[in-house]
Design a protein that fits this description.
The protein has about 325 residues and is α/β, with parallel strands linked by helices. The protein is built from ten helices and 15 strands.
Length: about 325
């Protein structure tokens, strides 16, 4: 019988992951009715969210140390509680829940689990970032076919799925990235036009090659990319805000621009924000459909090849992601 396991907690709020967290030994709790004990194999790394937890700046969370960390995990059931049906010891399961992931074991409510074929980092990427991409495009962006879709941070854990899902829907996809290596990956994923913003001007590309404008601009970077997307929306265009990595750790900037309605009104365009936890009603359906696409070989899941092994490597993984060095989803092997 498992007596204890290790996990990462926020021990103090310093504002950055490495100095805020520590690894602690926690007593194991056997699963109760409707629960299972899961041995976590992989945890998804979400650098900005993790960093903001260490600052207590997530609006819907009040971080009081010691505070459990990690939002995405995939692993194997090792013990069953009473009244658990349709699950067995050895089944692979994934879960998205605050505090479930940066730990070796978790006791989980079966209602929160998604049964999967294997506990792989690729499937973890799909359950977390793939589901977000599908919900955002279908429910928030109202994606159709025959549209022009631009995606920032296109080679990241989320962007890779936005590119593929938009392309599968019959759209022309413009993918933004900052390196030639990532650009090559994006072409493999089906992007029609890749823009390396370090060597090309995004505004010049959009003005010259896309005079009709963008039907959907999916942005998780913010700053100048957001501004360029906003200025190049098409009639009825939709700009989706899914984060702002360029300035999340900087003071709020007062930008001397015309009010946004001057840019939207005559196009009947819109800016819409998306954060996955705000739309739980769509999660199960999207998870089922995105896994089906992957199992049929119709969707790829890029996982960054840099190995991060053990809880001791979590801070390295967060800093690697925050530095923008990743191509694909960053995972921590436990």
């Amino acid at each position: 019988m498992l007596q204890s396991y290790r996990k990462i907690v926020i021990d103090r709020l310093t504002g950055e992951f490495r100095s805020s967290t520590r690894i602690v030994e926690a007593p194991a709790r056997p699963p109760g009715p409707g629960e299972v004990l899961v041995r976590n194999h992989y945890a998804g790394v979400n650098g900005i969210f993790d960093q903001n937890l260490c600052r207590n700046t997530i609006r819907y969370v009040d971080v009081v140390p010691p505070y459990d960390m990690g939002v995405e995990a995939i692993g194997e059931i090792v013990a069953l509680g009473d009244r658990v049906e349709n699950l067995r010891i050895g089944d692979a399961v994934a879960i998205v829940k605050l505090g479930c992931a940066y730990r070796e074991y978790q006791t989980a409510d079966v209602a929160r689990l998604i049964r999967v074929r294997e506990a792989s980092p690729e499937i973890l990427a799909l359950i977390a970032s793939g589901v977000s991409a599908m919900v955002a495009l279908e429910r928030i962006a109202d994606m159709k076919s025959g549209e022009t879709v631009a995606v920032s941070a296109a080679a990241g854990g989320l962007g890779q799925f936005v590119v593929q899902l938009a392309r599968r829907a019959g759209n022309h996809v413009i993918a933004l990235t900052g390196s030639d290596h990532k650009a090559a990956l994006l072409r493999e994923l089906g992007a029609d036009r890749v823009v390396n913003y370090r060597t090309e001007s995004l505004r010049d590309v959009l003005t010259r090659e896309y005079p009709r404008g963008l039907d959907i601009a999916y942005d998780s970077v913010g700053g100048e990319i957001f501004d360029a997307f906003l200025d190049h929306l098409a009639m009825y265009g939709r700009l989706i805000v899914s984060g702002h990595t360029s300035d999340f750790d900087k003071p709020v900037e007062d930008v001397p621009h015309p009010r946004i309605y001057h840019k939207l009104y005559w196009k009947s365009a819109s800016v819409r924000a998306f954060q996955n936890p705000a739309f739980p009603q769509y999660f199960d359906d999207a998870a089922h459909r995105i896994l089906d696409l992957y199992y049929r070989g119709e969707l790829r899941a890029l996982v960054d090849p840099t190995p991060f092994v053990g809880l001791e490597s979590a801070a390295d993984a967060v800093e690697y992601l925050l530095a923008g060095r990743n191509a694909g989803k960053v995972v921590l092997r436990l």
